[in-house]
Amino acid sequence: MSPSTRRQRTCNHRTRVLLDTLLKQLLQDETQVLEDGHLSLDGYNDITHIIDYDFEDLSMPSSASKFPPEVLFEPMVEVIGQSRDTSVLARPFPDLPEEPTRFDLMDSIIMLCDFIVDYTDTCVFSPPAKLRKIFLPCPIYLDLRNQGCYPDDRPPWAVEVYLEPVPEQGVVFPHLTILALQPKAGWEHEILYGELIALVSAMRSRAFQVKIDTKKEQEEFLDAMDVERKTYPYLFPEEETFPTLLLSAVEPRHARIIYGCMEGRRLVIRQSKLYSFVRGNDSPVEFFASLWLSRPVVRDSP
């Protein structure tokens, strides 16, 4: 049952407003999307876009380091390595046809997403991964933009899966990991509109997510009127960063890593190069699987 009083203003109110305002601006700027699906970030003063970021070396700083980690996720490289020879993980990843059709391209990026999920599903629900998939009626889905269309009537871009860390000793982590597909060719040093919306919307919804303990309460919340929803306390009343890791599958059959994190009054987006999954034997499946199973890294309080 919802609390009887209106929720109190939290110390991270500014962060929540910034994410909400940024998402609204991006949605309004849909008409500015280029024909190839990309959106220029030149006019977005609240976004810092870092390209060619190296996610292959996310070594954690030592306890004596004065510098906090830039990416608040730790890939589960050892977990994937230990699981390499199991029957579920051993099936080969097929090549993309030499002359793919429109259907082949869309089917291929769906296959890429499904393969990563299948590759890691035996690890997600057990230690040391300690992750869980997010489903309705979880309140994060309220106002969440998890799919959308480009102007050329292609199939919609869509988020396939959301993952979150399992709480540990009463600690709930704000980290999110997202796997999404884009029916557009990705270009180096550019970001697709659907990638931006998927990332920013997830961060915004995480910031506004309310604290609800049972599935019954979740259902009651989604059925409640707006005035009643405003009485529920936020799940993360003090969080300032809302780290979110997006694995984005793009055409023809490539993928990249996009990491978003609030740093002060700015959204900082770190983006990798494009990785090819065109040839099955050369595809970096294990690398992406280790990222998909990433564990949260928590910065020490100043």
List the main descriptive attributes of the protein structure presented here:
single chain, 302 residues, alpha+beta, nine-stranded mixed β-sheet, two-stranded antiparallel sheet, 7 helices, 11 strands, globular
- Categorize the overall geometry: globular
Task: Report strand %.
Answer: 15-25%
Uncertain ranges: none
Report Rg: 19 Å
Order of helices and strands: HEEHHEEEEHHHEEEEHE
The major sheet is characterized as: 9 strands, mixed
DSSP summary, beta strand count: 11
Termini gap: 36 Å
When the domains are counted, the total is 1
* Quaternary structure type: single chain
Content-based structural category = alpha+beta
Mean pLDDT over the full residue set: 85
Give the count of helical stretches. 7
Helix fraction bin:
25-40%
Describe the structure.
The chain is an alpha+beta fold and 302 residues long. The strands form 2 sheets. Strands 1, 3, 4, 5, 6, 7, 8, 9 and 10 form a 9-stranded mixed beta sheet that branches. Strands 2-11 form a two-stranded antiparallel ribbon. It has one domain. It is globular, with a radius of gyration of 19 Å. The model has no long low-confidence stretch (mean pLDDT 85). Helix 1 runs antiparallel to helix 4, helix 2 crosses helix 7 and helix 3 packs across helix 7. The longest helix has 23 residues. The protein is built from 7 helices and 11 strands. Helix content is 27%, strand content 19%.
